[in-house]
Amino acid sequence: MSNPSPTLASLSRRLTSTSQLLLERQRIISLQIAPSASSTNTIVRNLSAIKRDLHQIQNELGSNGLAGKGKKGESEVEKQMREIGDSYDRLVEMLGEDESGKVKAKALTREQ
């Protein structure tokens, strides 16, 4: 994989759609309605796949030597990876804000 950009774009789109699901879940919880188990499982499945893909891309970047620092600090790919990772972490935090999501969010937390 010489250029991970298409994969990064795909990850970004999946983060956006998962964010929408999480926002809807939070809205339902704010109305004091229990969130749907099916919706929660979809969110967890999406986040698990994103976490796996992030890890895979980071490994590929490291093995291809693309993760090196340029003259201006981090490369564009590294910047995108950091932003996607930060977005992922925020979504996992959102999932863990209620009791039913807290346990699921623990398993999705990335190692730093």
What does this structure look like?
The chain has 112 residues and is mainly α. It has one domain. Helix content is 75%, strand content 0%. The protein has helices at 5-30, 37-64, 76-95, 99-108. The longest helix has 28 residues, at 37-64. The radius of gyration is 16 Å and the shape is elongated.
Characterize the biggest β-sheet. Answer: none
Low-confidence stretches: none
- How many helix segments? 4
**What's the total number of strands?**
0
**How far is the N terminus from the C terminus?**
24 Å
Short description:
By secondary structure, this protein is an all-alpha fold. It is 75% helix and 0% strand. The chain has four helices and no strands.
List its traits:
mainly alpha; elongated; 112 residues
Structural topology:
Layout: H1 5-30, H2 37-64, H3 76-95, H4 99-108
